[in-house]
């Protein structure tokens, strides 16, 4: 199966999840994500690059753990280019943030050291299937920090096709499992 067929299958899965289920599953994802980030960043001083959920993506921030964290989200600023800007948890939860930030949110540009990455699909080898725009692949090409994918367990396939430009994750967090690079 090629990438587009996996994208169609993942979109169908997301289409069939209700908004209530998204929020319920997101609570578990946030709990699992909090546990991993606590181990990776015990002093809570790292900049966390997250995302503003679109089209039923997991709400990774649904935990009080993130209240005192240094959070940021991407701003799509050019041809497959992204920059990250600081945001508060309240701004993130407001639903006002999109993939292209309004000027009022573009105040402090930052470099995340931990990146929380959405996807349409993932596999158990920690490969990610994006929406096809290539924004994260371009950003990850030079990213030296920790890459954590988040999604629902139904978005995890045994294997997905990869290409040379695809970047593997270090962790994948779902409501049921935490997948870690090197652990099968």
List the helices and strands and how they pair.
Elements (H helix, E strand, L loop, with lengths): L2 H13 L3 H22 L6 E3 L20 E9 L2 E7 L1 H5 L15 E2 L3 E4 L3 E3 L4 E2 L5 H6 L5 E5 L5 E2 L13 E3 L4 E3 L4
Parallel strand pairs: 1-2, 1-5, 5-8, 6-9, 8-10
Antiparallel strand pairs: 2-3, 3-4, 6-7, 10-11
Written description of the protein model:
This protein has a single domain (3-180), classed as 3-Layer(aba) Sandwich (Rossmann fold). 25% of the residues lie in helices and 23% in strands. It has four helices and eleven strands. A hairpin with a 2-residue loop joins strand 2 and strand 3.
* Average pLDDT, all residues: 91
Assembly state? single chain
How much β-strand is present in the residues?
Answer: 15-25%
Fill in the CATH topology: Rossmann fold
The largest β sheet comes out as:
8 strands, mixed
Number of helices: 4
Round the Cα radius of gyration to an integer and report it: 15 Å
CATH class: Alpha Beta
Q: What's the number of structural domains?
A: 1
Q: What's the β-strand tally?
A: 11
Strand arrangement within the widest β-sheet reads 4-3-2-1-5-8-10-11
Helix vs. strand class: alpha/beta
Low-confidence stretches: none
CATH structural architecture: 3-Layer(aba) Sandwich
Can you say what the CATH homologous superfamily is? NagB/RpiA/CoA transferase-like
* Element string (H = helix, E = strand): HHEEEHEEEEHEEEE
């Amino acid at each position: 199966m090629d990438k587009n067929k996996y994208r169609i299958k993942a979109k169908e899965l997301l289409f069939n999840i209700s908004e209530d289920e998204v929020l319920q599953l997101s609570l578990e994802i946030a709990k699992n994500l909090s546990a991993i980030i606590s181990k990776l960043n015990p002093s809570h001083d790292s900049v966390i690059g997250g995302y503003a959920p679109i089209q039923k993506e997991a709400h990774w921030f649904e935990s009080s753990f993130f209240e005192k964290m240094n959070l940021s989200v991407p701003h799509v600023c050019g041809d497959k280019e992204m920059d990250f800007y600081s945001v508060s948890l309240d701004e993130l939860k407001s639903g006002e943030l999109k993939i292209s930030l309004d000027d009022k949110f573009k105040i402090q540009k930052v470099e995340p050291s931990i990146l929380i990455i959405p996807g349409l699909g993932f596999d158990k080898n920690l490969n990610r299937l994006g929406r096809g725009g290539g924004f994260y692949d371009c950003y990850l090409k030079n990213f030296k920090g920790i890459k954590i994918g988040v999604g629902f367990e139904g978005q995890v396939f045994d294997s997905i096709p990869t290409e040379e430009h695809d970047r593997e994750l270090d962790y994948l967090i779902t409501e049921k499992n935490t997948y870690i690079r090197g652990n099968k």
